[in-house]
Design brief:
By secondary structure, the chain is of the alpha+beta class. It has helices spanning 2-6, 11-17, 20-24, 62-103, 106-116, 126-132, 171-185, 217-222, 232-251, 290-300, 306-311, 316-332, 348-357, 375-388, 399-411, 413-420, 444-449, 452-460; strands at residues 30-35, 38-43, 47-49, 56-58, 122-123, 141-145, 148-154, 160-166, 195-199, 206-210, 267-269, 275-277, 337-339, 345-347. Helix 14 packs antiparallel against helix 15 (399-411).
């Protein structure tokens, strides 16, 4: 009796032995598990109890399964479509980049680099430029001008660079771009910002230059944060080094390179206030139509020489004139277009030449650098500036002559002061200057005949 009561019936085994036990011990669409004194009906994955504990049914109804199946299929189709679209877009993007590279002369540049054994510049893909600038982050912007933007970047080798991203260019300039790159790659001067590389797989090519840490001469002279005194010897050094850089561009390369946009904002300074001339890309601007000229003048207002106002064409003597304006900025610490005592805007070069002709130009000089020992030096610099600012380009000195004159003044400033102290003839001549026969005399009628003053006043308003 005891053995009979303690024995267990395996309902699950009976279900397998005879179909009649399936109705006696139901487990519809489930898995039968034997237990002492009974059994359990467990549901498979994707099914749930039918509410009787003896059967299972699908998690979803037929209608729900249709909806789910349709949704999954639609999602899968959309995902596949997106993947295909991304692949097509990636191929098209690569094709565009290849086309830009070819259009911007990338293949020609490779050939030129091989044939001339140019190894001083790098051709960088746009992804490297984006990485260097944090995808053109606003925090990386160094400056914005009429021709484009300049970003501060960090290349993969941790080299700090300045990346110039220009605005749209015309096809004629694009054809000359590779030639310009080759020429710029040959420039090697301590006072010229070095070209490191370029990016060609974009619509408008980008140039990558060395980064100079201490800002621009314009900021140094005219910055609003503070106005610390600047000794004359530092100003002379900056002027001399800038002149040497322009002289090198004009005469020491395979062909004459015009700066075309020389101004204090394009002279960079390092930690020791050494000058580095930058942004000399206007050499391709051989001539300009009316609209291009107006845009150009907006960026060079106060620095562009009178002849260029008429001809719309730049020459090496255009750079000489612009240098004369920068020299005045160093001597007066006034901007090229400055506000006078009654807050009217005036041209620094025009005002200086008017006062120079009346021998009262000393009133414009920065009093911080005026004393008995420096006055003759400042007088020589004034005469040099006036020569650079002559209305006719042919009457101006070359940048090589300007550079040699500044080197002489810088080497013997006190000697010059002692030799010429009280000598009124210093107003017309100096060591290294043009001969007395070509001494500066400002003819206001020449300026008025080409309406320089009116043009400047109209543009600054």
């Amino acid at each position: 009796m005891f053995l009979l009561l303690s024995s267990d019936v395996d309902e699950c085994a009976l279900r397998k032995q005879d179909p009649k036990y399936e109705d006696m011990y139901p487990c519809r669409k489930g898995i039968c598990h034997n237990t002492p004194g009974g059994y359990l009906c467990k549901c498979k994955l994707g099914k749930r109890s039918d509410g009787t504990n003896y059967g299972c049914r699908p998690l979803h109804t037929t209608a729900e399964q249709v909806v789910i199946g349709t949704s999954v299929s639609a999602i899968a189709l959309m995902a596949l479509t997106c993947v295909l679209a991304m692949q097509v877009q990636r191929k098209r993007h690569k094709k565009d980049k290849d086309e830009y590279f070819k259009q911007n002369g990338g293949l020609k540049l490779y050939d030129e680099m091989r044939s001339r054994k140019v190894d001083t510049i790098r051709i960088l893909p746009e992804k490297d430029i984006k990485n260097a600038t944090d995808n053109y982050s606003e925090d990386r912007v160094l400056g914005i001008g009429g021709h484009g933007m300049v970003y501060r970047g960090t290349l993969d080798d941790n080299k700090e660079v300045a990346i110039k991203k220009s605005k749209v260019i015309n096809d004629e300039w694009r054809e000359e771009f590779v030639n310009e790159i080759i020429i710029l790659s040959q420039i090697n001067h301590r006072n010229i910002v070095r070209l490191i590389g370029c990016c060609l797989d974009v619509h408008v090519p980008m140039l990558v230059y060395e980064f100079v840490s201490n800002g621009t001469l314009s900021e140094f002279l005219h910055g609003t944060d503070h106005r610390s005194p600047i000794p004359l010897d530092i100003r002379l050094k900056i002027a001399t080094q800038s002149a040497e850089a322009l002289a090198y561009l004009h005469s020491s390369t395979s062909r004459t390179i015009l700066h075309g946009d020389f101004k204090s904002a394009n002279i960079l300074l390092d930690g020791q206030h050494n000058a580095k001339v930058a942004d000399f890309g206007a050499s391709a601007l051989k001539s300009m139509n009316e609209s291009e000229f107006i845009m150009f003048v907006q960026g060079t207002l106060g620095y562009l020489d009178p002849e260029s106002f008429i001809s719309h064409c730049l020459t090496d003597k255009s750079d000489v004139y612009s240098f004369g304006v920068v020299l005045l900025e160093l001597m007066t610490r006034k901007r090229a277009i400055y506000a006078n005592s009654i807050n009217e805007k005036e041209s620094l070069s025009y005002s200086f030449l008017l006062m120079f002709d009346q021998n009262i130009h000393r009133n414009m000089l920065d009093r911080e650098i005026m004393d008995k020992e420096t006055m003759v030096v400042l007088e020589k610099l004034s005469i040099l500036a006036a020569n650079c600012l002559r209305p006719r380009g042919d009457d101006r000195p070359t940048m090589k002559e300007v550079s040699e004159c500044l080197q002489m003044i810088r080497r013997h400033p006190m000697h010059a002061a002692s030799d010429h102290k009280g000598d009124s003839s210093a107003h017309h001549n100096y060591e290294g200057s043009p001969s007395p026969s070509t001494a500066v005399h400002f003819d206001e009628t020449i300026y008025k005949s080409i309406e320089t003053s009116r043009l400047v006043q109209d543009l600054v308003r």
